[in-house]
């Protein structure tokens, strides 16, 4: 990843084939008959190596949300690849869950972002917004029985009301061999991109590079910060990049 950060693109300015597969700003109908507008702004991932290098959180790489098989359109499996910007929000919540269970979370193939052209994208599903995830394993526990799924479902439910946790079961709308979490039909517009309202390809493609948000990328002190507490004692807060050296550096 360059020092300027992730590249944000307006999907209306992508080539015609990609644009037809991503369907920016078109509406999709969910199972309840409600209409939802598809994402317009995407991160552009230039290569497989870049996908592996890009960290959305300390323990989740962008590549983990791009795991698809032949059910995804061929063009969208080739680089550069595109993922809705809201995937960053999903990664934030998964990082909180990762910290709560204190063990890696394993995302299933086709369990992250799915384009509208994906064979499993029947109607509107938050996977098409990059805001849904299917987990098949938590640490060494394979999620294929009621006890394991409901145990970790409860952890996720207690962690936040912001996401929907699919209940265990064999019927449609339930899961019996994985754990499904989603934030709904959320879109994210990074502050660096210009929303001009022109929903058509432009002669000059619209894009921007996200600024680095982390303090250590902006020349902030890299030494632990001393925090003053009542009573005069100081405490050293951890540096943003610090972590348990024995912990893995990815969600899986």
If you had to describe this structure to a student in words, what would you say it looks like?
Residues 216-222 and 232-250 have low confidence and may be disordered. Helix 4 packs across helix 5 (146-159). The two termini are 21 Å apart. The protein has helices spanning 16-22, 48-53, 74-77, 87-101, 146-159; strands at residues 7-10, 27-29, 35-37, 41-45, 55-57, 60-61, 81-84, 105-107, 132-138, 141-142, 164-165, 179-182, 207-209, 226-228, 234-236. Helices cover 18% and strands 20% of the residues. It has a single domain (7-220), classed as Muramoyl-pentapeptide Carboxypeptidase, domain 2, CATH 3.30.1380. The protein has five helices and 15 strands. The chain is α+β, with helices and mostly antiparallel strands and 252 residues long. Strands 8, 9, 10, 11 and 12 form a five-stranded antiparallel sheet that branches. A four-stranded antiparallel sheet has the order 7-4-1-13.
Which key features would you list for this structure?
four-stranded antiparallel beta sheet, Muramoyl-pentapeptide Carboxypeptidase, domain 2, five-stranded antiparallel beta sheet, 252 residues, 5 helices, disordered C terminus, alpha+beta, 18% helix
């Amino acid at each position: 990843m360059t020092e300027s950060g992730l590249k944000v693109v307006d999907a209306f300015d992508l080539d015609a084939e990609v644009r037809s597969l991503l369907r920016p700003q078109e509406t999709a109908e969910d199972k309840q008959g409600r209409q939802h507008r598809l994402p317009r702004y995407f991160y552009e991932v230039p290569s497989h190596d870049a996908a592996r290098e890009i960290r959305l959180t300390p323990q989740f790489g962008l590549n983990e949300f791009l795991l698809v098989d032949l059910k995804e359109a061929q063009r969208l499996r080739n680089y550069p690849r595109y993922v809705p910007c809201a995937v960053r929000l999903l990664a934030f919540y998964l990082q909180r869950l990762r910290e709560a269970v204190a063990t890696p979370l394993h995302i299933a193939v086709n369990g992250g972002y799915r384009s509208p052209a994906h064979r499993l994208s029947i109607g509107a599903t938050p996977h098409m917004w990059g805001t849904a995830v299917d987990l098949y394993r938590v640490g060494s526990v394979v999620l294929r029985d009621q006890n394991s799924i409901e145990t970790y479902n409860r952890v996720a439910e207690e962690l936040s009301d912001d996401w929907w946790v699919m209940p265990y079961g064999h019927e449609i709308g339930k899961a019996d061999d994985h754990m499904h979490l989603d934030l709904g039909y959320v879109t994210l517009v990074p502050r660096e991109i210009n929303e001009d309202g022109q929903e058509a390809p432009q002669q000059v493609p619209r894009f921007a590079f996200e600024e680095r948000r982390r303090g250590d990328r902006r020349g902030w002190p890299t030494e632990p910060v001393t925090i003053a507490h009542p009573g005069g004692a100081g405490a050293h807060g951890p540096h943003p990049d610090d972590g348990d050296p024995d912990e893995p550096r990815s969600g899986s």
